[in-house]
Design goal:
NAD; EC 6.3.5.1; globular; glutaminase activity; 6-stranded mixed sheet; alpha/beta
Length: 709
């Protein structure tokens, strides 16, 4: 046998239940791989994903399992999969139990169906809802395909090996683990490696979160750093049909070093990563780790499935092996620029709409949303320039012109992006000018309108029926009147946004409707600083999982890298809703004054509440130390109480929150990530008494120490 083995992985933009598209993307990736392998005359182990990850409750349907096996049958018969060990992910039912599985096959024969043993069941993941974890470690048995509810006529074999085993080829040993298993403290690759497995594969559905990439890379590299080996990771990419964006980053690692890196954000539906590696490097690396070898002598062996196949050739001594590389990470600002933009593109092209509609207020949040759409247009134009025919075909379908080719990002933006400044008597000239200038610089089709007529009509109906006219606080009205008059403006803007999204293209003689974009950030959602069914209510929201602090940095990034000078005045202006009357033509209302807390404080509260699992008392205990240089314990107690009062009063708004790009682990999204009540006892009486008691104790000891110094 030879020394070198060629392994390959991929990142495919699969879509839940799109069996035709998913099959086409798999075959396309295999076509790319075959061209590489034909030119080098080596064999490979190839890893990819079959059915799309986010099928959710569709996994309950027998149709999903049936169609997955039908796709598998097509793959088995395809010439593109011959002479390559292929590893595909799909749901499998065995003896009436549903498993999340890897199906490994070679030359039209299924070698092994390996069920997932550790299921992801936290945060955005609910695998235990649909699948059962395989609990029989190192056990494998033949199972009739008939027991898997499969039409056996589709397959050349009647039985398959099902369970936890590894593959032994002529020249090496290969093992597979699935997604969550890599992150577990007792990952299968640990004992597989001790048992002599040299190549590990993993197919993941790992979504993008800001600043997460380095964690994933470190976990993969550490999998082989302690005891050697080759790790091949495939990861889903794109919008699979919901709030998550799977960010690719397929990679190949050996002996703790990165050998090949896939892109994190890309409009390419298919990306193939190939590396040729020297198996002797794994063996020599392991040879000098004495503690590893001592542990290996005690490990229980895995069942080995013998495969009459070799990944190396006897005459490959002159074949150069790939060398380690340094991973290139994106900055958080680049992640915001690229991730949500790719998510928007997938949503747009798969929703069969003609573009986006955004209420553009001239503030940071809506301007950041506009910049993300502009970034999407830049990426689309770059992909077309680089010859991506799939992207060009999508562009032409969206604009309904088979001959159209985008000239530049501004020109394309004008086709698919409509912005609208919805002024009222409470709007300032400054925000009008900022919105207008930004729209000009990004190239969006911009509309200016005034909502005062509609507001007066709605309030007039109320006054006519009830016999009383509400007033703003500055004119003597109560807090209830003041809030109601602000809310009616916000809600009218939402109604107008949907009307213009449906009909503005029609009025311009263009086909199709537009998706309405929301622009409430994660901190405002956490506090509830938004009107229910206002402009925060939209079809999708690309910034709903991003903090105000990060959005400010992103605006600065766009100003410097996109030469959008309009953003300079936007970033320097204090955030304001402009829903109350102006004072001498100037804004008298600011967001932070309205909320009673700063955006920086809100981010801290959000991370402690969700990520540190802190209730009111626990948050207070942490903050009296974190903020001891800037706040007294009594001030900390007041701030914590105010946050939890506002959070509990406004939690009901999260039940109608616009589906948003998931970018932060403290997102308050009530749909599936942050599962909590939406009707609270907002007095928090027991919890707040605990805080007050602790404040008294701290105050007593502080006075005691001062009196005895």
């Amino acid at each position: 046998m030879g020394r070198t083995a060629t392994v390959a992985t991929c990142a495919l933009n699969q879509w839940a239940l799109d069996f035709d598209g998913n099959l086409a993307r798999i075959l396309k990736s295999n076509g790319f791989l075959c061209l590489i392998l034909i030119s080098s005359e080596f064999f490979a182990w190839y890893l990819f994903v079959c059915s799309g990850y986010g099928c959710s409750d569709h996994y309950y349907e027998s149709d999903t399992l049936l169609h997955s096996f039908e796709v598998l049958a097509k793959l088995l018969e395809s010439p593109a999969t011959q002479d390559i060990i292929c590893d595909v992910g799909m749901p499998v039912m065995c003896r009436n139990v549903r498993y999340n599985c890897r199906v490994i096959f070679l030359n039209k024969k299924i070698l092994l169906i390996r069920p997932k043993m550790m299921l992801a069941n936290t945060g955005n993941y609910r695998e235990l809802r649909w699948f059962t974890p395989w609990s029989r470690a190192r056990w494998v048995a033949y199972s009739p395909l008939l027991n898997m509810h499969v039409c056996v006529l589709c397959f050349p074999q009647e039985t398959v090996l099902f369970g936890d085993a590894v593959l032994a080829t002529k020249d090496t040993c290969l093992g597979s683990e699935i997604c969550e298993e890599l992150w577990a403290p007792n990952s299968p690759h640990i004992e597989m490696g001790l048992d002599g497995v040299e190549i590990f594969t993993n197919s993941s559905g790992s979504h993008h979160v800001l600043r997460k990439a380095h964690t994933r890379v470190n976990v993969v590299n550490s999998a082989t750093a302690k005891s050697g080996g080759i790790y091949v990771l495939a990861n889903q990419k794109g919008c699979d049909g919901d709030r998550l964006y799977y960010d690719g980053c397929a990679m190949i690692s050996m002996n703790g070093d990165t050998i090949a890196q896939g892109s994190q954000f890309s409009l390419n539906d298919v990306e193939v990563l190939v590396a040729t590696l020297d198996l002797e490097d794994v063996r020599s690396y392991r040879a000098e780790i004495s503690c590893r070898n001592l542990e290996a002598s005690k490990v229980n062996s895995y069942p080995r499935i013998k495969v009459n196949f070799a990944l190396s050739c006897s005459d490959d001594i002159c074949v150069p092996a790939c060398e380690p590389i340094q991973w290139r990470y994106h900055s958080p600002e680049e992640e915001i620029c690229l991730g949500p933009a790719c998510w928007l593109w997938d949503y747009l092209r798969r929703s069969n709409q003609a573009g986006f509609f955004l209420p553009l207020s001239g503030g940071i949040d809506s301007s950041a949303t506009a910049c993300i759409v502009y970034s999407m247009c830049r990426q689309v134009c770059l992909a077309v320039k680089n010859g991506n025919q799939d992207v060009l075909a999508d562009v032409r379908r969206i604009v309904n012109d088979e001959t159209y080719t985008p000239v530049d990002s501004q020109e394309f933006c004008g086709h698919i992006f409509t912005t609208c400044y919805m002024a009222s008597e409470n709007s300032s000239q400054d925000t009008y000018n900022r919105a207008k200038l930004l729209a000009e610089q990004i190239g969006s089709y911009h509309i200016n309108l005034n909502i005062d007529v509609a507001v007066k009509a709605i309030v007039g109906i109320f006054s006519m029926v009830m016999g009383r006219a509400p007033q703003f606080r500055v004119y003597g009205g109560s807090s209830r009147e003041n809030l109601a008059l602000q809310n009616v403006q916000a809600r009218i803007r939402m109604v107008l946004a949907y009307l213009f999204a449906q009909l503005s293209h029609w009025a311009r003689g263009m086909p199709g409707g537009l998706l309405v974009l929301g622009s409430a950030n994660v901190d405002e959602s956490l506090h509830g600083y938004l009107t229910k069914y206002d402009c925060s209510s939209a079809d999708i929201n690309p910034i709903g999982g991003i903090s105000k602090t990060d959005l400010r940095s992103f605006i600065q990034y766009c100003m410097e890298n996109f030469q959008l000078t309009a953003l300079r005045s936007i970033i320097s202006a204090p955030p304001t809703a402009e829903l109350e009357p102006l004072a001498d033509g100037q804004v008298s209302q600011t967001d932070e004054e309205d909320m009673g807390m700063t955006y920086t404080e809100l981010s801290v509260y959000g991370k402690l509440r969700k990520m540190a699992k802190a209730g009111p008392y626990g948050m207070f205990c942490k903050l009296i130390n974190m903020w001891k240089e800037i706040c007294t314990p009594r001030e900390v107690a007041s701030k914590v109480k105010h946050f939890f009062r506002m959070y509990s009063i406004n939690r009901h708004k999260m039940t109608t929150l616009t589906p948003a790009y998931h970018a932060e682990n403290y997102s308050p999204d009530d749909n599936r990530f942050d599962l909590r009540p939406f009707l609270y006892n907002s007095t928090w009486s027991w919890q707040f008494r605990s805080i007050d008691k602790q404040v008294s104790i701290v105050h007593f000891f502080s006075r005691f120490i001062l009196n005895h110094l």
